[in-house]
């Protein structure tokens, strides 16, 4: 949050001049240290999270000023911070999710099998995104037991799943929006663990887009295969997009590419040149291709 100050706003009773009006302000933290500002339920207190400390402030009266009522020093740099109800949730860059009350006392340390990367909390629901691409869900504001949803299989390459970098609860905590570090994002139904939408993307810019040619079946096969039009629609590609950067999962890979079919979800891949691959010129490599082989290529 690029603010060095926070303002307490009120709405005046004069409807002709309706709108928030700042009545006081106070410096809170250096811009480089400020992580988040969260208003508490009573509307008179708020919390300011820095990289190494969390401050609790109060606003006293219409003509009063901001006053710091508590400071909680953190042993490790903070990655993420949220407030829900009468509890504050702190996720360090390395370590477990911690739950503290507004007196600075630790209430719970969430024991998770994998290192958390991000989290969200609303009501009694806590959802954590982890390093292995999985989500962990607890319906207890002080989580002690977790329901775990693994990373979708179609997102794993060579057994390496992408990391979850952002998760947000919504729709009465029945669904969550999830973002992965390979630019894939989607929505998961938390009760069933099923992703109802997954959208692929490139982390960086796009270098090239290649439209796929029209897929046709050879005449010799079209007369012998049932529902050939349906098969062609399910196998045909719409286009191929090539990213401008190498994959972040494995730097030794080539440029990342996504094949976008006319039906079904897209598939990721890499434009990788393997060593010791034999090379032949066009004339020596050219040879007749049978109708059966041409169909198998698709």
The global form is elongated
Q: What's the order of the H and E elements?
A: EEEEEEEEEEEEEEEEEEEHHEEEHH
The Rg value, from CA coordinates, equals 27 Å
Biggest sheet layout: 4 strands, antiparallel
Total helical elements:
4
Provide a descriptive summary of the structure in words.
With 298 residues, the protein is mostly beta strands. The chain folds into three domains: 1-86, no CATH class; 110-199, Beta Barrel (Thrombin, subunit H), CATH 2.40.10; 206-297, no CATH class. It is built from four helices and 22 strands. It has helices at residues 219-222, 228-235, 282-285, 291-297, and strands spanning 5-10, 21-27, 34-39, 45-50, 53-59, 66-73, 78-84, 87-92, 98-101, 106-109, 116-122, 125-130, 135-138, 147-149, 164-170, 175-180, 185-189, 194-199, 206-211, 237-246, 255-261, 267-271. The protein has a four-stranded antiparallel β-sheet with strand order 3-4-5-6, with no helix packed on it. The model is unreliable at 1-16 and 289-298 (pLDDT under 50). InterPro entries: WD40_repeat_dom_sf.
List keywords for this structure.
single chain; 298 residues; mainly beta; Thrombin, subunit H; 4-stranded antiparallel sheet; 45% strand; WD40_repeat_dom_sf
């Amino acid at each position: 949050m690029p603010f060095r100050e926070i303002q307490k706003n009120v709405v005046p009773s004069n409807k002709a001049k309706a709108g928030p009006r700042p009545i006081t302000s106070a410096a809170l933290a250096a811009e480089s240290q400020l992580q988040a500002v969260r208003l508490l339920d009573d509307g008179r207190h708020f919390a300011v999270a820095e990289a190494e400390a969390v401050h609790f402030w109060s606003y006293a009266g219409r003509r009063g000023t901001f006053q710091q009522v508590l400071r909680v020093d953190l042993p490790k740099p903070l990655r993420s911070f949220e407030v829900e109800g009468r509890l504050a949730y702190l996720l360090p860059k390395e370590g477990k999710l911690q739950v503290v009350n507004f007196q600075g006392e630790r209430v719970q340390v969430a024991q998770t099998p994998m290192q958390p990367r991000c989290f969200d909390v609303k009501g009694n629901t806590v959802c954590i995104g982890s390093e292995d691409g999985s989500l962990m869900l607890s319906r207890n504001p002080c989580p002690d037991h977790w329901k775990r949803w693994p990373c979708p299989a179609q997102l794993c390459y060579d057994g390496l799943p992408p990391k979850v970098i952002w998760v947000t609860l919504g729709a009465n905590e029945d669904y969550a929006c999830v973002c992965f570090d390979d630019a894939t994002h989607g929505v998961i139904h938390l009760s069933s663990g099923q992703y109802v939408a997954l959208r692929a993307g490139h982390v960086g810019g796009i270098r090239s887009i290649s439209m796929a040619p029209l897929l046709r079946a050879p005449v010799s096969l079209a007369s012998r295969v049932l529902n050939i039009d349906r098969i062609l629609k399910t196998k045909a590609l719409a286009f191929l997009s090539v990213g401008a950067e190498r994959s972040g999962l494995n730097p030794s890979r080539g440029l990342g590419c996504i094949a976008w079919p006319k039906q079904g979800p897209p598939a990721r891949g890499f434009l990788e040149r393997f060593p010791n691959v034999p090379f032949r010129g066009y004339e020596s490599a050219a040879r007749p291709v049978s109708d059966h082989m041409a169909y198998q290529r698709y």
